[in-house]
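Still learning. Any example?
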Amino acid sequence: MIETDILIIGAGPTGLFAVFEAGLLKLKCHLVDSLPQVGGQLSEIYPKKPIYDIPGFPSVLAGELVDNLMKQIEPFNPGFTLGERVEAFDKVSDGRFIVTTNRGTVHCAPVVFIAAGLGSFEPRQPPLDNITDYEDKGVEYIIRDPEFYRNKNVVIAGGGDSALDWTIYLANVAEKVTLIHRRKEFRGALDSVEKVHHLAETGTIRLITDAEVAALTGDGRLESVYVRHETGGDFEIQTDHYVPLFGLSPKLGPIADWGLGIEKGAIAVDTLDYSTNIPGIFAIGDINTYTGKLKLILCGFHEATLAVQSAYKIINPDKKLSFKYTTVTGIEGM
């Protein structure tokens, strides 16, 4: 059993910053996330996308922000359980919470922070009958390591930022990149759209619009995709990898059955400290809802800060909390 002061469900930017605020009050944190790495959406969906509304940073890449947050919390030595989804939830007689993951890892803490962003993410699969036969055998829904595709033939499908960004990035990594989109218009950033068109015009990538992948073939491993074109008919593309980037579908998952107040798919909280209807459980970041809610990273940072203050009082009911500025005491003196 893993015991800690605050169990944080979700290792995205809000959850990571909560570790820092808790560390200032000498509270120990452990984070659980269904994704195999920290950073949440920033790492999983758009690690190379710039963010412009983080105070003090005119622009910072999403991946760099995650790296900075990890460096910021390093002095507090948090624990991590990654690649596991929270499942069971119980409250024992001493008031602590027992949370168990889908892999049987048991965590125990007097306070739980739910910072799971929009919930656990599942890839949106294209409606291809045999696609599961090729999962991890040439079909990937998420690009985690671009070097995995070096000198390979890659077919990417999608029309959003993720499909555009990875097409641009892999153009310098893979031997051949083909981007397929069912429309001529893209949903991504204009600059990315222009870059993709330029890469297509110069012959660096192959761009196919008004088309979609209709079938997959291969003997034990993906070997080709069949493309259905609105005007050009069907044709086959030999490929090593097919990566449909149609986004990730967020779901509350088992958390929805914990007895929390749920409004329109989000957890209702008290804006005094972002506590839920269950004492000892707080919800911070995109997963919560309240009047005037803005789904911004900086708002999640604010919510984490106030939640930690109340968490301290639960964990240390006999101690008086004395707020201190880090500019006066420094990290080591807190």
User: Anything to note?
Assistant: The longest strand covers residues 211-217.
